[in-house]
Automatic annotation (TrEMBL):
Pfam family, one: DUF3987
Listed name of the protein: YfjI family protein
InterPro entries assigned to the protein according to its UniProt record, in alphabetical order: DUF3987 (IPR025048)
Length: 290
């Protein structure tokens, strides 16, 4: 009986559907950031809060997991869907929190390019050494000469093959599911599929493989089978998904693929917001005037 009463109290404490987005945020630092962004951008509060949650999820998912009371350990990765019309400042609300991450990614990309050039040079040198050893083994084989020394050298060479540097890529804006999965395998295993113009993500190929998307959300390993090249397995990867798009684009997607995505359980994993417009209510207050 007490469990039932507690459940009723919990349900009553939840905000009702259609209620205004709450102004109270338990974390003081997060509340200050959201309040400042809302004051400066004057976009819907729910939209700004969604941008903040995206950045938090992206930054924390590779470091923190959650242990449920049942003992199951699961990722902290979030999947967020924000529906807002044109002019609601979706890109601005997102960039307030994601901008520094994108800037850091650009700086790391420059370092990656330098490391890639160095790796390419080392790889070419390694290939030439390998050719020489293989040529010696081929000649010895033709002459019936033992080539155990060369074979040992070849084995040592194979172990010392230069390792390709990993690209520090955290944010994927517009990628096919194949490119996304290979990026998680070949580059950072923790990333985000994020776009303030999310129609490209829904209409593109990023969310085509729903079963693998659901597995990533749960922290399960997935295997990507390929015909032309070697297959690979992604283990212990984390993926944040944040899609901001207009209502017309969302309705169009749901008409085409809604039943499939709903049936797979994809939308059950999303935190969804569809806030009221702030257009026509934005004013420059005295605090902005010097």
């Amino acid at each position: 009986m007490s469990i039932l009463l507690n459940a009723v109290k919990l349900h009553e404490s939840l905000p009702r559907v259609g209620a205004r987005f709450p102004r109270f945020v338990p974390c003081a630092l997060l509340a200050a950031a959201v309040n400042e962004a809302e004051k400066n951008v004057q976009a819907p509060r729910a939209l700004i809060f969604s941008g903040a949650l995206t950045a938090i999820s992206l930054a924390c998912q590779g470091l923190i997991d959650v242990c449920k009371p049942t003992g199951q350990c699961v990722p902290t990765s979030l999947m967020l869907l924000s529906i807002a019309g044109s002019g609601e400042r979706k890109s601005t609300a997102e960039n307030v929190f994601l901008g520094p991450i994108r800037e850091f990614q650009c700086l790391e990309y420059k370092k990656y390019r330098e490391a890639f050039v160095e790796w390419n040079v080392q790889l070419e040198v390694w290939k030439e050494k390998r050719k020489v050893v293989l040529k010696k083994i081929s000649k010895n084989t033709d002459k019936g000469i033992n080539s155990s020394e060369e074979e040992s050298l070849l084995s040592t060479l194979e172990k010392s093959k230069p390792v390709r540097p990993r690209q520090y890529k955290m944010v994927y804006d517009d990628a096919t599911s194949e490119a996304l999965f290979f990026g998680l395998y070949n580059n950072l295993p923790s990333a985000g599929l994020i776009s303030s113009e999310g129609a490209g993500i829904l209409n593109g190929g990023a969310l085509n493989d729903l079963s693998k998307q659901n597995s990533l959300w749960s922290g399960d390993s997935i295997t990507v089978d390929r015909v032309s090249v070697e297959s690979y397995q992604i283990s212990d990867s984390r993926l944040t998904v944040s899609v901001m798009l207009q209502e017309s684009a969302f309705k169009e997607y749901m008409e085409r693929r809604g039943e499939k995505s709903r049936g797979s359980g994809l939308w059950a994993r999303f935190l969804v917001c569809h806030p009221e417009s702030t257009q026509g209510t934005r004013v420059i207050g005295p605090e902005f005037i010097e």
